Every structure is written in structure tokens, then in C-alpha cells.
Automatic annotation (TrEMBL), chain A:
Domain of life according to the entry: Bacteria
Keywords assigned by UniProt, alphabetized: Transferase
Domain CoA carboxyltransferase N-terminal, first and last residues per copy: 1-254
Organism: Dyella kyungheensis
Protein name (database record): Biotin-independent malonate decarboxylase subunit beta
Gene3D superfamilies found in the cross-reference section: 2-enoyl-CoA Hydratase, Chain A, domain 1
Lineage: Bacteria, Pseudomonadati, Pseudomonadota, Gammaproteobacteria, Lysobacterales
One protein family per Pfam: Carboxyl_trans
Automatic annotation (TrEMBL), chain B:
Family annotation (SUPFAM superfamilies): NagB/RpiA/CoA transferase-like (SSF100950)
Annotated Pfam families: Mal_decarbox_Al
Protein name as annotated: Malonate decarboxylase subunit alpha
Top-level taxon of the source organism: Bacteria
Length: 315, 548
């Protein structure tokens, strides 16, 4: 077992509003704060103006980086490849160029097989205006991601942005070696509105935000094992989480895959009958599950570690 | 022989008829409709309590269930047309005529019923105006109201959401009308008496809280950088130079941004204690950081806000609370305060025309007014001086001798040149005019009249209409802050430049504001959860505003 420890306890908290909130930061601010100062070198930066070939058809504004920032930087001097989605451009959705940049980065990681990859998710899924290209991109990214992992490259996902991690983003996150998520982060495939539209408001009331968060939010994902680390909503905390998970990321051996299969089967067995996240938390042993959403970062981490140790032998 | 007490006799008859369903004043929930059928007569003026916040929801359903062969042609005189039942009454033929003030969620359906002739419209009022008419020519014969609790004698505790109840009950009870209250529960001892029992004829225990809409909660997470820029302009360009201490805010995101910038940007400008200390305002959650930072001395409220009650109770130096400790709101009093005792109203709108008239009406919606036209108008009866009032009066009329010069209330419209769904805020002609001609109304529903507006704030800058000396100047002051809208693009650049040199138009750079500084980091709270933390966990936001 590794001796790496997660030292978020050292992070000083601003009393009220933190100035380096991950949730509030743009993709570029996150990359800048995550990496060693001045270490980031961007690939296919906005100056190259690789814009979406589709959006103009719909009279929609383009962005010179197509909402995806990819490049190379360092954490504590060690090189890492980084991809960050800009959740404020088209909800961070995957289009042709957006997806190709991430796929290319993952293929480079596979070929070099020497640097870990960090994916800073912030996405509602595939861009409807370029749905076919976007769906293809998701599939290609998942393949490239698995190939990189088989080549021994840890691929760590960080989720805590405004748009959450939905649709194809949720599938890619599920393929990662490990995930860190903050309270604000949400991980799922179908989003709340999609579920409500298809199954009715009785099934899922997308306007009940407390329900959305306790079903898809960071605390729930950490408690049911969907994410290994629960991060505070600061860039510093995500940096610590990234450092920690790069070290711990399991290689995708047959043993790992079987362990993951067993873990998921056990999860369905244990919680399959629960109607609400509160029931799951109760059956995990939380004596007052309704108080969990309001718990502070520190109190929640302590509780989560007591209820369910994060596992590092699966994925 | 002239009879002088026919109304009293009729009242006694109604009480006798209703008593068949009552034990003392108490009527079972199941008998609510039967009670209403016994008490109400065809053609009655009925006030069914409801406004933009609280709703007498049980009584609304009970009234919608009466036999229309017995009860019909009612004249509804009520603040809000908000619940579906309010309009069902007209569709079912139970009610025919309507005088009201506000209709948020039902604005589209009310328009349809007006077009279809199902509703005979008296007028759309402001709250205060409608309350005033309760005492002159629209006095209710029956009032159906909502309270938190009652005791055996029918004394009522209306609690934090007291709102319209005192104004309605006073008019009804003292002009021989019948007052029927739905209460959440009947108790032995009330926390305090808001309405004396001898003004109340019947009480129905509903067993659950009456509905309250959290209308004044704005999520700081949704505030944009453009809105922050308009907030910076307003604080530095209006609050500071006029020294506005007594004010009312509208409910939009622009004013929420101002509230959240007071403890940060306002503090940086050294304005604490000099502006925004006394308010006529609902308990806006976004004001919590300013309250906690010591900016706010006193707030009187129209109503309460869902989730704010425990916080208010813990800050009695700021809010108006009863001997029991809970908030006592009062819409009529707060509207009066907003009209006469505030030096400024600032709020967002949907459309502004070239005269400065503004409206929140679109061609197929009749949203009503609520309180904004009252807050956003100069009180011609005002006689007490104050620095902002005198200064605004002087800007408008520099030549009159000061002792004879009226002051002016600052009436500020704030928004982005392109609003929601990229609809331009500035238009050549208000949709309200189209609606008026479609419905054959004598008056177009104008929220704030142009001659009351003193300033317009957009991300392009501030237009000070007090300094305009002709209609042409006024029009170009408005075009000058209308940005890339059609109205803005039709401006005469030279004239706008002249207005800017005279300070009629002030751009961000004229005020020393760099638009790139308009950053969400200025917000004292950037999420609902931050507000909860600021409140010391006393604020309990409703589920739909939580992202945890």
C-alpha cells in the first residue's frame, strides 16, 4: 500500500466565501491553480482558432478553444497532462473539436505512457447541435482512455463545476482510474430534466434541487463509492486530491475489473431496494441521514470515512 | 321610514345561516363549501385573500366548489390572482367581475379569460390603491382570509406572513361584512393576537400551513457579471452621490447583486453607515450579508420570506417583531412607508420606451402590478425634506427658489440592455399598448410612468433623466444607455456625446469603473449555501433553492 496521505486538513478555510472556489473558477483558472506556477503549456490554444464547424449553421456563437483546454504542466515538479472543460460555454458540452482535443490528449498519453492525465469535467453531455460528432467523440474518448490506462497511465477525473458531469461525461468519468468530487459536483448520465421528461415528475422532480443533489451530488457519490475522494470546493483541495489519486490509481488488470464488477454487484444487492438516497445512507449506518447534506466539509469527510472506506482495488 | 341598519341586519342573517355549520365560530373543514354557500349571496363583493406570497388556499378550493346555481356573479376584490382556483371561479361562472393588483403565475390564463369575456375587469391596481378602495367603493361583503392559528374565541395569530390581512379585515369587519378565516391549527393560547376575535365570524382548521410562495429568494449563483457591473454603477453613481439611506429594492437579480455588493464594493467605497440603512423591504435572503456586516439599521416588511423566520426572530433590532419574537409584516403599512418614507426605489423591468415608461406586460400576459408602481412613483403629498430628495429636486428644477421647490423621489430602473432570452429591454413601443388595444382598456398597464423615472442603469452606464431639459434630450439619454438594441443603435451620436459631457449620461469609465472588474468575486455570497453560513445557519432555504 502506498503511504500517500490526503492532507486537506491543512487547507485554511476562508470563514465565509472562499476566493479560490473551484465551482466559481473558469476552466483556465482551474488549470492555472491546479498546476505549479507558470508550468502550463497549452496544446491547440485559442490562438489557433480551432472552432466548431457546426455551430455557425445554427447561428450560435463559437469559442476559439471550443470550450476545451488541453495541455501539459507540472504538479510538484512532476509532469501531468491536463484537460479542462469550460462549463460556461454551451454547458461544457462535447462537440467535434471539443471531443477531439481530449481524445488526442489521451492518445498522446497512451503513446508516451509516462505521464498521468487529469480530466477536469464540467459538462452537461453531448452538444445537441453536433450530436453525431459528439456521440462519436464520447466513444472514441472512452476507448482512448482505456487504452491509456492499459498502457499504465493513471487517468484521474475531477468533478466540481457548474455544469456537473452528465451524459457522455458521466460515462467517461466512469472509465477513469479514480475520481474526486466536491459537494457542488454532480455525476450521472441522464440529467434531472431528462429523467423528469421521460418518466414524469412523480419519478423525479428536477426542480427539487435538494433531491437532485442527494441523488447525484458529490456527497452521495462519495458515500456509495462512485468517487474515491470528496474534495472541498477549493482549487487547493482538488490539487491535493489529484496528487493523492495519481499515486493510488489502480492499473486495469483482470483482478481490478473483477473487483469492480463485484463491488457494483454488491452495491445493487445492498441498495437496490432503496427509494431515496436517504435510505441508502441510513442502511450504510448513518444515524441521522437527513443531516448529511448540511454537514461541513470536515464533518462529512469524517463521517464518510467512518461509514465507508474508499476502496482503491477496484475501477 | 328610512332604514339605517340594513347592512347590519343582512350581516346578522348571514351569521345565522352560517351558524348552522358552526360550533361557536368553529366550522369543520368538510363543511367549508356549505358554509360559504350559506353566507355568500349572488353578486357579493368577495375578497379571497392572496397576494404574491401567502394564499388562503383551502378557502379558494372551497369557494370554487360551491353550487353556481346558488352562488354566482360574484365580484372578486383581491390582491392576487395566483392560484388556479382564483380563475376557476370565473370559468365556472361563480364569479364575474374582478378588481385586483397582481397575477404572477396566472398571467397568461387571465389574459385568455379576459379575451374570452369570462372576466369583466374593473381595474388592475397597485396593492395600496386596492386597499384604499376597500375603504371607499370596493368594500368586501365577505372576506376569506388565512392565519397561522386561532384560539377558541376566534382571535387570530397571522404571524410573519401577516401581509394584507389587517387591511382586509378592518374594511370588512367594520362595514358589516363577514370574515371567515382558515387557520393551520386551533390552539389554547396564541403566541400573540394579530386580529381580535370579535372581528372574525367563522374559523376553519385546515390542518396544514397555508401556501406561501418564496418570491423574494434570488440565488446568488445565478448572478451574472453584467448584473454585477450594473450594481457597481448604481452604488457608485447613485447611492453614493445622493446619500440614499431610506429605500426599497425590487426583486430582480440586479438589485440582489447590489445587496451582495454592499459589504464588499460598498465597503471599499467607504459607504457603510452612509447609504442603505433603512428599508421598506421583504426579508430578502441576499440582504443577510449586509445585515450581518452592520450595514442595516431597520427593515419594515410587506410579508415574510420562506425560510427566513428563524433568522428574523434572531435579529429583532433590525426587523419588526411582536412580543412573541416573530415577525409582524404588514403590506399596507410597508407600501405606505415605501411611498412616503423612502427616498429611492430601484428595480428591474422588462421593457422601457423612449419616454421612460416601463412595463412588465407582454402581449399575451397580464401580470398586474403588485407594489412597484407605488414604490416607483413620486409622492406628491410628501412634505418632509431629506438630502437625496432635495438634491434630486434641485437637479430637476435648478431655477426655482429652494424653499418652494419640491424634492423628487429617486426612481431607478436597472437592467441589461438585452434581458432574458435576449429580448431587448428598450423598445419603441411597449407591448402594454398592444395589450390595451386588444382588450379595449382605457389605460395601458404601465408599471412606472416615464415622468416618475429619474435614472436608468444598464451595463452601458447611467442616464440621469432629472438633468434632461427637453423631450429630445430625454429620448437620447435613454437611447444612449440602450447599447446595441434597435433603440440604442438609432441614437444621434453627437447628441449622446453632448449629454455625456453634461453628465446626463455617465459611462462606467466616467465613474472610474472598469467593466473587467465586474467579477463574481465581489459577491459577498456566491451561493445559497453561503447565505446560510452568513446567517449562522438560521436561514433555512426551501428545497428548490438548495444545491447540497
Amino acid at each position: 500500500m502506498s503511504t500517500v496521505t490526503l492532507d486537506n486538513a491543512k487547507v485554511e478555510r476562508q470563514p465565509l466565501v472562499s476566493t479560490d472556489s473551484w465551482y466559481e473558477a473558469s476552466a483556465r483558472q482551474r488549470v492555472e491553480g491546479l498546476l505549479d506556477a507558470n508550468s502550463f503549456v497549452e496544446f491547440i490554444g485559442p490562438e489557433m482558432r480551432e472552432i466548431s464547424p457546426h455551430l455557425a449553421l445554427f447561428d450560435l456563437p463559437e469559442q476559439f478553444d471550443d470550450g476545451m483546454v488541453v495541455g501539459l504542466g507540472r504538479i510538484d515538479g512532476a509532469p501531468v497532462l491536463v484537460a479542462a472543460q469550460e462549463g460556461r460555454f454551451m454547458g461544457g458540452a462535447f462537440g467535434e473539436v471539443h471531443g477531439a482535443k481530449l481524445k488526442g490528449l489521451l492518445r498522446a498519453a497512451r503513446d508516451m505512457a509516462s505521464m498521468p492525465v487529469l480530466i477536469l469535467f464540467d459538462t452537461g453531455g453531448v452538444r445537441l447541435q453536433e450530436a453525431n460528432a459528439g456521440e462519436l467523440a464520447i466513444a472514441e474518448i472512452m476507448r482512448a482512455l482505456m487504452e491509456a490506462r492499459f498502457a499504465g497511465v493513471p487517468v484521474v477525473g475531477l468533478v466540481g463545476g457548474r455544469s456537473g458531469c452528465y451524459g457522455g461525461g458521466g460515462l467517461i468519468a466512469g472509465s477513469c482510474s479514480a475520481l474526486a468530487v466536491s459537494e457542488q459536483g454532480r455525476i450521472s448520465v441522464s440529467g434531472p430534466e431528462v429523467i423528469e421528461t421521460n418518466r414524469g415528475v412523480e419519478e423525479f422532480d428536477s426542480k427539487d434541487r435538494a433531491l437532485v443533489w442527494r441523488t447525484m451530488g458529490g456527497k452521495h457519490r462519495r458515500l456509495i463509492g462512485g468517487a474515491e475522494v470528496f474534495a472541498d470546493d477549493t482549487i487547493e483541495s482538488f490539487r491535493n486530491a489529484a496528487r493523492y489519486l495519481i499515486e493510488l490509481a489502480p492499473a486495469p488488470t483482470l483482478d481490478t475489473l473483477e473487483a469492480e464488477q463485484a463491488r457494483l454487484a454488491q452495491r445493487i444487492h445492498d441498495f437496490g431496494d432503496c427509494a431515496d438516497a436517504l435510505d441508502i445512507w441510513r442502511s450504510l449506518g448513518a444515524s441521522e441521514p437527513e443531516t448529511i447534506p448540511a454537514l461541513s466539509y470536515e464533518a462529512f469527510v469524517a463521517l464518510a470515512d467512518r461509514l465507508q472506506e474508499p476502496r482503491h482495488d477496484a475501477r | 321610514m328610512t332604514v339605517w341598519n340594513s347592512a347590519q341586519r343582512l350581516r346578522d342573517e348571514r351569521i345565522r345561516a352560517g351558524a348552522a355549520y358552526a360550533q361557536g365560530k368553529r366550522v369543520a373543514k368538510a363543511d367549508a363549501t356549505a358554509l360559504l354557500e350559506a353566507v355568500i349571496r349572488p353578486g357579493d363583493r368577495v375578497c379571497l385573500e392572496g397576494d404574491n406570497q401567502k394564499q388562503a388556499d383551502l378557502l379558494a378550493s372551497a369557494l370554487a366548489a360551491v353550487d353556481k346555481n346558488r352562488i354566482h356573479d360574484l365580484h372578486m376584490v383581491q390582491s392576487g390572482v395566483v392560484l388556479p382556483e382564483h380563475l376557476d371561479l370565473f370559468e365556472l361562472g361563480i364569479a364575474r367581475r374582478l378588481d385586483y393588483a397582481y397575477s404572477g403565475p396566472q398571467s397568461q390564463r387571465i389574459a385568455k379569460l379576459l379575451f374570452g369575456g369570462k372576466i369583466e375587469l374593473g381595474a388592475v391596481h397597485t396593492y395600496l390603491e386596492l386597499f384604499a378602495r376597500y375603504y371607499v367603493d370596493l368594500t368586501p361583503q365577505v372576506a376569506l382570509i388565512a392565519a397561522v392559528s386561532a384560539d377558541r374565541e376566534g382571535n387570530l395569530y397571522t404571524g410573519p406572513n401577516t401581509e394584507d390581512t389587517p387591511a382586509i379585515v378592518e374594511a370588512t369587519a367594520f362595514k358589516d361584512g363577514i370574515v371567515i378565516a382558515q387557520v393551520n391549527e386551533i390552539v389554547d393560547k396564541l403566541p400573540r393576537v394579530d386580529i381580535p376575535g370579535d372581528w372574525v365570524n367563522f374559523v376553519i382548521e385546515s390542518g396544514k400551513p397555508f401556501y406561501v410562495e418564496p418570491l423574494f429568494t434570488r440565488d446568488p449563483g445565478a448572478i451574472t457579471e453584467t448584473q454585477i457591473l450594473t450594481a457597481m454603477l448604481a452604488i457608485k453613481g447613485i447611492y453614493a452621490p445622493y446619500g440614499v439611506q431610506r429605500l426599497n429594492h425590487g426583486i430582480g437579480f440586479n438589485t440582489a447583486a447590489i445587496e451582495l455588493l454592499l459589504p464588499t464594493y460598498g465597503e471599499r467605497l467607504g459607504l457603510k453607515g452612509k447609504v442603505a440603512s433603512h428599508w421598506a423591504l421583504n426579508p430578502h435572503p441576499t440582504l443577510i450579508p449586509a445585515i450581518e456586516s452592520g450595514w442595516v439599521q431597520q427593515i419594515h416588511s410587506f410579508g415574510s420570506e420562506v425560510g427566513m423566520d428563524a433568522y428574523i426572530q434572531a435579529r429583532p433590532d433590525v426587523f419588526f417583531t411582536g412580543p412573541d419574537g416573530s415577525l409582524r409584516s404588514n403590506r399596507a403599512m410597508s407600501q405606505t412607508a415605501g411611498l412616503y418614507a423612502c427616498d429611492m426605489f430601484i428595480g428591474s423591468t422588462l421593457q422601457i420606451d423612449l419616454h421612460g415608461n416601463s412595463s412588465t406586460v407582454t402581449a399575451d400576459r397580464v401580470a398586474g402590478f403588485g407594489g412597484a408602481p407605488n414604490m416607483g412613483s413620486d409622492a406628491r403629498g410628501r412634505r418632509h425634506p431629506s438630502q437625496p430628495w432635495l438634491l434630486a429636486g434641485k437637479e430637476a428644477d435648478p431655477d426655482s427658489p429652494a424653499p418652494l421647490r419640491r424634492g423628487r423621489k429617486l426612481v431607478v430602473q436597472i437592467g441589461e440592455t438585452f434581458g432574458e432570452k435576449n429580448a431587448p429591454m428598450f423598445v419603441e413601443q411597449l407591448d402594454a399598448l398592444k395589450l390595451a388595444s386588444k382588450l379595449d382598456l382605457e389605460l395601458a398597464p404601465v408599471m412606472v410612468y416615464g415622468d416618475d423615472v429619474t435614472h436608468i442603469v444598464t451595463e452601458e452606464g447611467i442616464a440621469n433623466l432629472l438633468l434632461c431639459r427637453s423631450n429630445d434630450e430625454r429620448e437620447h439619454a435613454i437611447r444612449g444607455v440602450a447599447g446595441y438594441t434597435d433603440v440604442g443603435r438609432a441614437r444621434d451620436k453627437k447628441l449622446v456625446q453632448q449629454l455625456r459631457e453634461r453628465g446626463v449620461i455617465r459611462r462606467p469609465e466616467d465613474l472610474g469603473i472598469d467593466p473587467l472588474d465586474a467579477d463574481r468575486r465581489w459577491l459577498a455570497a456566491r451561493s445559497i449555501k453561503d447565505l446560510v453560513q452568513w446567517s449562522g445557519h438560521l436561514y433555512a432555504p426551501p428545497s428548490k433553492f438548495r444545491n447540497w
